[in-house]
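Entry 14. Ran structure prediction on the chain below.
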Amino acid sequence: MTNQELADLIFPNITKTVADYEKMYPLRNLKEGAKVTRYAPSPTGFMHIGNFMSVTIDYVLAKNSGGVFYLRNEDTDQAREVEGAVEFIRHILEYYDINPDEYEYRDTKESKGNYGPYIQSERKEIYHTFIKHLIIEGKAYPCFLTQEEMDAAREAQTKDKRRIGIYGKYAKYRYISNEEAAKRIKNGEKYTIRLRSNGNFNHKFKFTDLVNGDMELPENDIDIPIMKSSNQLPTYHFAHLVDDHLMRTTHVVRGQEWMSSIPLHYELFKTFGFKMPKYIHTPLILKKDGDKIRKISKRLDPEARMTYYEEKGYPVYAVIEAVMTIANSNYEVWRENHPDAKFYEFEFSPKKMSSSGALFDLDKLDNISKNYLSRLKAKEVYDLLDKWSKTYDLEFNKLINKYQDYTINVLNIEREQKKPRKDYASLSEVKSQIWYMYDELFKDVTYDFDKRFTSNDIKVVVDEYFNNYYDEADDKDTWFKKMQDLATKLNYCINMKEYKENPDKFKGSIADISNIIRVAITTKNQTPDLYIILKLLGKERILKRINLI
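Output, structure tokens:
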């Protein structure tokens, strides 16, 4: 029996050839240097921060070069698919405005692009054509190893301290005749299709990773499965080869954990004579844990989940900026020189990426986020807060919508000035910073008065000030002058230098006067501009509050 006859037995309905698909998916008509990248997640889990760094790099490479960024759903491992994972991936891309140029969405059937289907389970006929080609060429074969036989081989290899896999004497079905293979198939025996490896583990080949540089790696000699017996879908490695070739991918961005797959992918591309894409193996994302630095953990670290940043209310801009700073060492300098540029205008260089690990620091994210939020107009912050709180704090959302203009004014305190305040890093922190401005939240409060002052001291200051000095119509200079007058009357020093030199001569300082008033009205000893807070609250509400003390 010829290889062609065996291939026809296995794939009787496959009539197209590899050459046919080469014509159907021609080289892309792009300008020189344009990059074609893809985000190709497997829906066996939810996106984490490492995935997000990879997809951000994919997007920047394509956008900056005038190329194409596409989304491919690698759903061949259907037994491990997690419900909702596909929809979550789409949500994250839309949320961060990293929109693919080409895609296909399984739930809505919406698609765009001429190189699909972009869902691997819909490309079975294409994979079968390429597998059939290998069988005809004698470069692949049906394998009838049972699970028990493979377990026994693994056990023997482990005991003898050999490499794990089906190769050499363990690949016993690569040596049977086509006739025997056909007989077993006709008898209904289960089989997979394996690559007939032509590699020699003792030989090395040269490979260049754009992050790690030039390296020499041992050839692959394992007869890997390229089609599963259960559903006749290809394995990840084979689908990767076919799709990246036909979709004309130029650059593959993936985690460092895939480095061990290079020999296998190198052989697959070499077997077909296809040009390999260029590979960018991103470093592990690390975090500080006390005095140690370790790999960020999906199990231990909430910030490993992409849901974390949305739940906390970090602005999209801040998350992307934080990721870009660990992706390329020169990004921060570029950002300083291009403060208004889009992040994808940055020219990403794999050589500027650390190969030993990328330290992701939440403090750095907080700093980026605080700076960003402080530069926004109060109405812009309100809009972000409104959108976030609709999902994560509905009670607060109703409150800020009830008092929309008032809330915007509260958010505007000390904002439009040379050095705006930087009170919050995320939208989830806003409520804890401004809650006291809402009577509905000003209940069962605890006051943070300085313990140096008795309740009578506090009552005297508060009653005297609001009954005899405070006037809503006062400008800021007049307001402060009246506070000085009160301080002088009650023997609180208005000159801080003099107070520090002779503290025993005075009841306290002008700072203590203002702080007593501040705490009485807000419960807090640190707030934005007290003058503006009093103006916004209004005297009627203030008088109600001081009666609560």
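The chain is about 45% helix and 10% strand. Will compare against last week's run tomorrow.
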